[in-house]
Amino acid sequence: MEIFVCEPLEINPQVFSLWLSGYSVDEAFRRRVDTEPETSKQFPDFQRLLRNETVDQFRIFLILEPYLQSPPTFLTQDLVQLPTATKKSLIEHYYAFDESVVREFFGKKLSTRNRKDLDDVSEKTGISLKSCRRQFDNIKQILRVVDDYEGSLVENIKTQFILPEHLARNYASVVFISHNRFETNKRKLAHLSFSDLTYCANQMIDRWTAGAEGSHAMDDDLELDRNFLQELHDLKLSLIDRVWIDRQLKYVVKDLRHKKIPPQTLKTMESSFKSTSKAVTMLGTSLIHSKDVRDFFVDVLEKIVEPCKQLALSKEDTANLLGSIASTFPECETAHAKHTGRPGPQENKWRYIYLRYLDTLTNCVLVLYHD
Does pTM top 0.85 for this prediction? Predict the structure, then answer.
């Protein structure tokens, strides 16, 4: 009988990483031997001791795993004595994820049935099935827990799962996409990366949710601000009116000339402005409907990015056009208010609502515009 004792307890980061990656004891042992071939040759007992340590570390990890699934409990448990810094490091690594794996989870319900079908995800990404399941379970757990809390999604994740800022922010975007069931699996979206989608999600969390700055609804980062979406929807008839579009076109063309846009490009922008302006407005005013929220990424590509590409407008051209629509909106609205005799106080409300929408949309369009 061989007994392996270590006091005080030490966690081997390399072995922990191998365990998280889904390696068996034998596989982890062989990889450790391969990293130290010279030591294995010099010391006859090295491999035996290395295997014993690997087995012991795996036993410790299995003991720790239930606690890692509840980080606040892990920090306070007394079963395994570890420095606080080590505990936080283990939590961070346990909740780390592979972007390629999580990208495959987008658009799917985090159900028991889908968990059983992770073999395809494992095969496609080259990540072990065990690791895929751990990542799936972590996201599901975080979504379940934060759904019970109001307030900042990022702060709730940091507090409830003891995660650093960058990882909590990534999880916030992941659970936001999962909670709102955004369509991300259509073929035309296949080229969009994890970073593309989570960037857009973070933009929406910061500006469009009930917990965003300026929201007058309940403080909730998971849900879109229904009052904001309703007010945006109510602007539709005014913003697709011919008089409004003709007036806005004049201001936009003037602004684009100041940007020294090439004549041919400017001509293209001017001739297509009516359809572009309507597409931008209609996409925003449709977000009051849950189905259109789910189709947001599809609609951005089909209604804005692809038409701009067909017009031979580059990413920079598209940025200039949307930027001019935003920067001239206040001036256009003031002129429209004078023309219609609309009360002054209403003016700022239009401006705030539309620019709250357009600033975020523009950021999303430019990220989803791939050359």
Answer: yes
**What total number of domains does the chain contain?**
3
Under the banding of pLDDT at 50, 70 and 90, the label for residue 335 is: confident
Q: Are 303 and 279 in contact (CB under 8 A)?
A: yes
pLDDT digits over 158-205, tens only? 999 999 999 999 999 999 999 999 999 999 999 999 999 999 999 999
Q: pLDDT tens for residues 44-60?
A: 788 888 899 999 999 99
Whether 218 and 233 share a structural domain: no
Q: Is 209 helix (H, G, I), strand (E, B) or coil?
A: strand
The residues that bridge with 151 in the sheet, in sequence order, are 220
pLDDT given for residue 71 in this prediction: 96
**What angle do helix axes 13-20 and 46-68 make, rounded to 10 degrees?**
60
Render pLDDT for 9-65 as a digit per residue (tens, 0 to 9).
Answer: 889 999 999 999 999 999 999 999 888 777 766 777 888 888 999 999 999 999 999
In terms of domains, do 306 and 343 share one? yes
Residue 350 — very low, low, confident or very high, per pLDDT cuts 50/70/90?
Answer: confident
Residue 6 tokens read as 């270590």
H helices, E strands: number in the chain? 22, 0
Contact partners, residue 92, CB within 8 Å, separation at least 6: 163, 164, 167
Query: What span, in angstroms and rounded, lies between the C-alpha atoms of 157 and 164?
Result: 9
**Distance from C-alpha of 88 to C-alpha of 76, rounded to nearest angstrom:** 12
> What domain range is 350 assigned to?
229-368
Nearest to 269 by CA among 233, 222, 228, 316: 316
Beta carbons of 99 and 194 less than 8 angstroms apart: yes
Residues in the chain: 371
Last-in-domain residue among 208, 224, 240: 224
Q: Residues 80, 64: contact at Cβ < 8 Å? A: yes
309 occurs within a structural domain? yes
HSE toward the beta carbon, residue 267, CA cutoff 13 A: 3
Cis check for the bond before 330: say yes or no (omega within 30 of 0).
no
Give me the long-range contacts of 29-32 (CB less than 8 A, separation at least 24). Answer: 29/54
**DSSP assigned state of 118:** T
